[in-house]
Amino acid sequence: MTPAPAHAPTLSDLIHAETRRFTAEHPRSLALSRQSAEVWRGGAPMHWMTDWASPCPVFAAQGVGAQVTDVDSRLYDDFCLADTPAMFGHGQEAVARAIADQAKRGTGFMLPTAGAVIVGRLLAERFGLPLWQMATTASDANRAAIRWARAVTGRPVILVFDGCYHGMVDDAFVTLRGGQPSMKPGLLGQVHDLTATTRVVPFNDPEALAAALAPGDVAAVLAEPAMTNCGMILPQPGFLDTLRDLTRRAGTLLIIDETHTLSTAPGGYARAHGLEPDMLVVGKAIAGGVPAAVWGVTAELSEHMDAAAARTGPGQSGIGTTLSGNALAIAAMRAMLSEVMTDAAYARMLAGAERLMTGLRGVIAARRLPWSVVHVGARVELVFAPSPPKDAAAMREALDARLLHALHLWLINRGVLIAPFHTMMLVSPVTEDAAIDRLIAAVDGFAGALEGLAA
Hints:
It is an enzyme of class 5 (isomerase). This protein has 455 residues and is α/β, with parallel strands linked by helices. It has helices spanning 11-25, 27-37, 93-105, 114-127, 138-153, 206-213, 239-250, 268-272, 299-312, 327-340, 343-367, 392-398, 401-413, 433-451; strands spanning 60-64, 67-70, 75-78, 131-135, 157-161, 174-177, 180-183, 198-201, 218-223, 253-257, 279-282, 293-297, 372-376, 379-383, 416-417, 424-426.
């Protein structure tokens, strides 16, 4: 009797094989993961650390430049870069030196330092807004910006774009489901209906934006200039100009969150494209991984803020935290702005991103894949759709969760880290061409493996 033919391998078979490979090659990470689960709820100090496609997180031992070594002595080309805080590379000498020096003299005083004056001038020069404040995270900075916008305008509503993410900001956890505003699935512990004071519209839809602003009750639009958290979505030609024009006509403030799009240029996307926001938020990479964020305002808005504060009177504003603006973060930020985030560094990042983008598009063309590539500055994303989606609804249709899982696990097993939440890849100024080529080859290998799978 002829034996029954073995079934053609499936995507599930590929994932199982890659899972077994990871398990065999990462005994120390697996052991540490079990130990970590005994003391950290969810298995890690922050639950996002367990969101990788691997059976357990890779436990890091050290990062140097654009590479990470794990506790099993395995080396990775790092295109995640801590999901942006290490955008300019790990172990920056200038930042390490500044941190060590400041730590010897005190990390925080609840008093400004002379270095704060220099940092303020560097921020104003780089981003074009004259007046600044510090926060500990971009979440804090966005919350402060929203509170001030409501105080200044006397309006209750905030407008965001469907698919946005602006950190742990309650007002931004609203999405469109079936065309209707709804709080995002999975939102924990929220007792207020956020849709009462947050309006949400599709990105790249000027008609929907105009209609949402028409009632005259929107204090501010909070937006990334290019969406980066639901999959990268670029603004269509003219959309950002329309956004700026419509907000001005409506008396609505424009808050631009550059936490990810800082990869565009030394002054961020907004300055590179002449967007002229009323408020600008920058987090993550601005202090080289030391927890810090900044938000800047125009001189005109600052005057309105003073007037709003005078109307409110003395007391607790509800804005600010004890660690915001601490001396350690100021020292790190000064080193980043003056020694690390240079024009030359950006030139290397952008050249590397161009190499990566060209290589990935070559793989797509050679293998005739129904995929595409999109980028913002040094940030590149592989999209499982023939052309880049223009809004979050279209992007959701392109996000194949199992395919994403398989790709991430495949890359980890071949010594490549990319952002665990989707397919975003970030090129640092110290990322070597050889590392970019290894990433391209790994994606090509994954695409080749898919060709042999059963539908």
